[in-house]
Amino acid sequence: MDTHGGVPTRQPSYEGVWRFTAAAVDVSVPQARHAVRDLLVRQGVPLHEEIMDGLLLIVSELVTNAVRHAALLSPEIAVEVAIGPEWIRVSVEDNHPYRPKALEADYGQTGGRGLLLVREVAQEAGGACDVEHTATGGKIIWAALPLAPMAPGPGSAPHPTVTSPRTDPSAP
User: Fold this and answer.
1) Angstrom distance (rounded) from CA 69 to CA 141
2) Which segments of the chain are extended strands (E)?
3) How far apart are CA 95 and CA 98, in angstroms?
4) Is 161 exposed, middle or buried (0-12, 13-18, 19+ CB in 10 A)?
5) pLDDT digits (tens, 9 = 90+) for 14-43
6) Global pTM?
């Protein structure tokens, strides 16, 4: 428990870390998106609607990528949601060793830009995303977003920097 001027203060009740697993199959994409949305509503997270839409798009893209590209070596994936006082982070973990990179826009292709979309949505909201290897040889792809949209203009306050999905959930 934190203190403010000697008086104990409580963390908002919506803070925490939740993790669930799913089979690396197509039906897991909408199930993961609905599970994350339901969790946020149930916890009463004060998430701006615009940020919620972007976050759910990110969940769909990350789970879709895991299903399409990692299922052969990773029949199960894990989705983790970490919520702090001013930010939310979602990550998808699989056991496939390939570490994808965001492709640039190639309008001649019909696919392959999911991670580019994740990066753009996260950056536009004032957040970040990255890909990291796990100790078991797989990977975690994560995106972190502020709970509220960035204030427009050059004088807007910076949002907390999030560098890893494994940091203390009470730290930005």
Assistant:
1) 13
2) 2-4, 7-9, 16-23, 76-83, 87-94, 128-133, 139-146
3) 9
4) exposed
5) 999 999 999 999 999 999 999 999 999 999
6) 0.79
